[in-house]
């Protein structure tokens, strides 16, 4: 009798413990600690160091400027390359893209560059319990060795490397196929009208920019003379998939719609949103309501559109009460360019707006404007509003910093170039990393450390020869600049300072051979 009474007592005791709401709460808190910050990474395309007004630009960008007023603005932050694919590869994997071949600007039918099993920024956060999404430009290849199967299941892709949800412009706006991909499939694809894509020869009979320029709403200036979709000729040939074709004017709206839906669905969990804008890459086709908003032509209008986008994301976070504990990082994949292949008057109308700010060069370039980019971090719970940081920071350190902050290990041999600089990212430390390597077009590497920038000798000429009017920064001689005293890299002091030059050369070599 006593034994059964004891059993009954124990059963009642355990049941009441499990039911107690306060007991449950306590044990969850113990397990996960206080709620981790959400992360919204706004990764813009081709936005220069001087393109937004808080960095001196002449085009008003009040919503982006507001992020800086509420957060921390970096003046010495770098992306890893002056073109898109390698920057994005390094950002997501923590490995310099140049460590292996085939990670330059990817064609629109490239296979997945980041292999499943690779440690990634979203993967690390996923392991830490985050819901993760990518919305926007991908440009890191899709599918297996034969490339993407546009008419079937498109995999591997973001979902196989750490994202729970994806809504993609598969490559860039100027590359076919001109369709969105949501998770594993093309959106709105009619199976009776399959998509064909070819980057070498024409497929189907759709007009091209080369043969039918009279059909174009924006003319091409170099490249971009293949299949016409929505009045714009692209890189690559395509046919089929008519019902799935995008309208460039709707990019910003579509990406905002998908992102805000993701934020709303996950408002009660920690989430990571990699919001990868199409703006301000070519073709620069703003929504009708933004066309003509500036007197600087389409390039100005898409900057205003980009600013609106940032405003919409900020508004959603605020509305849901998430602003205080969400880290918003706003930055760019590479430096600016005016004519990047379409006659959109970017150069003619730029006036006194300086996309590169005080820096020399631009997209594709080894000079500073190629890779020194705007970067703003807002996190009201931890970061002092209106602060600035001149500490060296590289986007390659986001994965290492978030891994450390969320207590995740990175598998040995993975993410070899990332470091934890959480305190720099959140404005609490001014030591920063020792040096950082940048990759320009044609794989030319340069190195920044302390006050100096070193560019080793290379074959390429001083200007890009195939289109954009940009200085490459290439020379047959070694170059050394004191970027603190001479941020515009006007005076090569390599010969004057052989000691510093030699040290920089050796440090770059050591990173290359690591
Ligand atoms: C270049 C394209 C340019 C742009 C760039 C990639 C030509 C002539 N130019 O090859 O328009 O698409 O590639 O830009 O085709 S990025 O920002 O995605 O790296
Ligand atoms: Ca880019």
TrEMBL record:
<comment type="similarity">
    <text>Belongs to the sulfatase family.</text>
</comment>
<feature type="signal peptide">
    <location>
        <begin position="1"/>
        <end position="19"/>
    </location>
</feature>
<dbReference type="InterPro" id="IPR000917">
    <property type="entry name" value="Sulfatase_N"/>
</dbReference>
<dbReference type="InterPro" id="IPR052701">
    <property type="entry name" value="GAG_Ulvan_Degrading_Sulfatases"/>
</dbReference>
<dbReference type="InterPro" id="IPR017850">
    <property type="entry name" value="Alkaline_phosphatase_core_sf"/>
</dbReference>
<keyword id="KW-0732">Signal</keyword>
<dbReference type="Pfam" id="PF00884">
    <property type="entry name" value="Sulfatase"/>
</dbReference>
<keyword id="KW-0378">Hydrolase</keyword>
<dbReference type="GO" id="GO:0016787">
    <property type="term" value="F:hydrolase activity"/>
</dbReference>
<protein>
    <submittedName>
        <fullName>Arylsulfatase</fullName>
    </submittedName>
</protein>
<dbReference type="InterPro" id="IPR024607">
    <property type="entry name" value="Sulfatase_CS"/>
</dbReference>
<feature type="domain" description="Sulfatase N-terminal">
    <location>
        <begin position="37"/>
        <end position="407"/>
    </location>
</feature>
